[in-house]
Amino acid sequence: MPLDQVNVDEWDETTPGPREKEMSFFDHIDELRGHIIRSVFVLFIVFIGVFLMKDFVFSSLLFGPVRADFITFRLLCGFSESTCFDPPSVTTFIVTGMSEAFITHMSISFWISLAIVFPYFIWEAWRFISPGLLAKERSAAGNVVAVSGILFFIGVLFGYYVVAPLAIVFLSNYGLPMTQGFYKISDYIDLLVMMTIPLGIVFELPVVIFFLTKMGIITPTFLREYRRYAVVILMIIAAIVTPSPDAASMLLVFSPLYGLYEISILVSAKEYRKLKAKGLTFD
User: Is 104:185 a contact under the CB 8 Å cutoff?
Assistant: First the structure.
């Protein structure tokens, strides 16, 4: 019987005996294959939809961070004169091969689709493991799945609206003597992807800390003791991606990263107290 067809709601922590019919290794592999196929199918459907929205994807979404009227630049100028940057010097992008335009369209459609579908991948993974959990564990895991999806989208949006525009301003205005910039569309997409998708994963830090604490690898005491080192690392990251060395710009990038670390400490502390109450800690 497939895992997701077991009526696990009839069981709880006090129910004696096995919670489900024993499945063989190949049954688990077959069940996993079903989840993977569904995930790939959803990704394919979303990919087709994004691919057909070429005008919106390129005109409004992809090239938004290189326009002077982009919302980030307008808000920064309204916030402080020191954070009012010159607009990016990019006006056009070039393609260097006959097939590059089509491949670029395929590439950006894939990455946008992946960002949209990523929370669904997490949900499918939860569906695969949830039948093997107790009722309370399933409830907690369901909350983690929802939080993971929200954090991922927040990270991607932070990268798109904050990190990517700042990086584009810096890189496009950085010149060398006797040179003129010509920018390939594929290089621009690579930069935009690097500034968004990885940040969505970085924003999963509280979820990662939750599981590391649950496994006894990380404790809130450890996170508090090494907070000063984390601050230094986060400040270095903020300095790298900030085009201007002033404190206001660095603070704009540093603040949410540091906030994630503090949230991770609170998540770890809460889970650690639960484990300690059950006698599952080793201190």
Answer: yes
* pLDDT computed for residue 74 by the predictor: 81
Task: Centre a 10 Å sphere on the Cβ of residue 277 and count the other Cβ atoms it contains.
Answer: 9
pTM: 0.76
CA-based end-to-end distance of the chain: 42
- Phi and psi angles of residue 176, each rounded to the nearest 5 degrees, phi first: -120, 155
Quote the CA–CA distance of 19 and 162 in Å, as a whole number: 48
Give the gyration radius of the chain's Cα atoms: 23
Residue 71 is predicted with a pLDDT of: 86
Q: How many helices (H) and strands (E) does the chain have?
A: 12, 0
Quick one: pLDDT at residue 248? Answer: 63
Report the alpha-carbon distance of residue 2 to residue 21 in Å, rounded. Answer: 9
CA dihedral 48, 54, 60, 61 (to 10 degrees): 40
Domain boundaries, the chain: 24-203, 204-283
Q: Specify burial of residue 52 (Cβ count, 10 A radius: 0-12, 13-18, 19+).
A: exposed
Can you list the residues of the chain whose pLDDT is less than 50? 1-20
Q: CA 151, CA 161: separation in Å to the nearest integer? A: 15
pLDDT of residue 48: 96
| pLDDT tens digits, 15-47 | 434 444 566 666 778 888 888 999 999 999 999
Phi, psi for residue 94 in degrees, rounded to 5: -115, 155
